[in-house]
Amino acid sequence: MFGKFLYVTRPVAPTTADVCDLCQMTIDSLPDFVLLEIFDFYVGQASEDSLEGIEVWIALVDVCRKWRDIVFESPRRLNLQLLCTDTKCVWELLDIWPPLPIVVSGFD
To answer: 47 and which of 22, 24, 53, 65 could share a cystine (Cβ 3.0–4.6 Å)?
Structure first.
């Protein structure tokens, strides 16, 4: 013999997923000045770590045209530089990048 089932529901607090559904935003919808702030933080953190961090901005310009334009419109703020070492020469890169300062390191 089967009895009747009683289903009791209780209020459930919204989850993170529920809250995020209300305010979804893609990176494409961020204004340029917000992206520049993010880029500035990213480049600043990386360049403090080592000489190799000097060219971390190259990853940003490879993402899309919008990011490339933002980076190249702010070379001083982002401290854009090319790194030349005894194992890596920038001569081949000079014709693909805009005029940028060159950091020379590792030569005796």
So the answer is: 53
Structure tokens at 33: 């000045």
Three-state DSSP string of 8-37: CCCCCCCCHHHHHHHCCCCHHHCCHHHHHH
Q: Which amino acid is at 65?
A: R
Distance from C-alpha of 80 to C-alpha of 108, rounded to nearest angstrom = 25
CA distance readout (Å), 51 to 47, 73, 103: 7, 23, 9
Q: CB of 70 within 8 A of CB of 39?
A: yes
Rounded distance between C-alpha atoms, residue 64 and residue 38, angstroms: 15
CA 9 from centroid of its chain's CA atoms: 44
The model's pTM = 0.68
CA dist., res. 80 & res. 93, Å (int): 14
pLDDT, mean of residues 95-101: 83
